[in-house]
Write a structure and sequence with these properties.
Strand content: under 5%
Low-confidence stretches: none
Shape: globular
Order of helices and strands: HHHHHH
Number of strands: 0
Largest sheet: none
Helix content: 55-70%
Structural class: mainly alpha
Length: 121
């Protein structure tokens, strides 16, 4: 009979150990990561979309949104914000759009603005 010395098998899953280890990195919420990633495009879009229901105060509201977005890290360029505003305006002025179509239109505007990237500082 041949005896084989016992050799411990290598650990099958080092990632499992890493998952159990306490994290020293600061916790960042998903919402904060999204804000950092898109440079405030979604925030700008939501603000601007709310302005389209204001009637006479719409222009002042849009300017207020633009000022707020300028303070965001990696904020979109002013031309991108103008393009986003015009796109959203098209979504709201098209009376043939149903509510779900309007939401899709707004999402498309956000995606176009996100693709243009952050403005130069």
């Amino acid at each position: 009979m041949l005896l084989v010395p016992f050799v411990a098998a290598p650990r099958a899953d080092a990632a499992e150990d890493a998952a159990r280890a306490p994290s020293t990195a600061p916790s960042v919420s998903k919402r904060e990561r999204e804000r950092e990633h898109d440079g405030g495009v979604v925030k700008a879009s939501r603000c601007m979309a709310a302005c389209h229901n204001r009637g006479t105060g719409r222009d002042a509201c849009l300017q207020s949104c633009a000022r707020r977005i300028e303070r965001v890290v990696n904020a979109p360029a002013p031309a991108t914000l103008e393009q986003l505003s015009a796109c959203l305006d098209d979504c709201y002025t098209d009376t043939t759009l149903r509510k779900t179509d309007r939401e899709t239109c707004k999402l498309t505007c956000e995606q176009i603005a996100s693709l243009s990237g952050p403005g130069k500082r």
